[in-house]
Amino acid sequence: MTLTLNDVGAVPTRAPAAPPRTPLRVTLAGLLPARLRTRTAAFVLPLLPIAGFLVLWHLLTDYGVVAWLRFNRMPTPASVLDAFIARVGSGSYYDDLFASLQRILLGFGLAAVVGVALGILVGRSEVARMTLRPFIEIIRPIPAIALVPLTILLFPSSEQGIVFITFFAAFFPVVVSTIHAMDSLPKVWEEAAKTMGAGRVSLLFQVILPGALPGIFAGLSVAMGVAWICVVSAEMISGQFGIGYYTWQSYGLLDYAGVVVGMLSIGALGLGTAWLVEYVGRRVNRWLPRAAR
User: Fold this and answer.
1) In this structure, how many other beta carbons lie within 10 angstroms of the beta carbon of residue 150?
2) Whole-prediction pTM value?
3) Residue 206 shares a structural domain with residue 67
4) Residues 56 and 100 both lie in one domain
């Protein structure tokens, strides 16, 4: 405590306290640049649940745990790895992958083009909405896989039928998301563009369609997942080749490790195509605040 003099007299005042000492902590993350830390986290964090799943899978199958589920009949990760190495060495594996990719890209591409065009028409035209929306809602609840018997009767080959089933499955998420994207656009955008002299074509391609693209790509992402489910199911029922046919054939031969190889291959293909759709969406919608993520 120190004394200071003022006009009144000596008044005791407290000396300013010294700032608290913070312990010096040096961590490995602090030594890395921010960009490198972000890239390291983006690489390491997705591996954590995968590693945990593999460890749990190994323990359950290695000890043959039988509780609510029976893991004594499941193939071990080592046997699946051996089956995958053997499968990769055969040329038929790549033929199956290429066949499924060809079907999914063709069916999904047709659904994207037709679904977006029809969704814009229904979203912009009241006559088209009253005419087509009830028909769309009647057909939409029908499972695409239920059309397999009809496709066998309608199409001359199973290849065309599987592509149609893929198209049918992916079409409805695309068209419905496009309609909702049209409905959610602020009316002030259109009114402001008309005030500045925008015509119908420029209004569509410079205001309406760019504003609806985030919602459209959300529907495309959902449609890709639904398309994979249906194309694999169709290959299991009526296909002669493809990754779904290989998975079902492995089950018929009691090759359970091959079944898991087929399942993981389907997951890898689905991951790659979903990433492609999201990447294109980020590039198209790069004006969004979070598009850079």
Assistant:
1) 12
2) 0.79
3) no
4) no
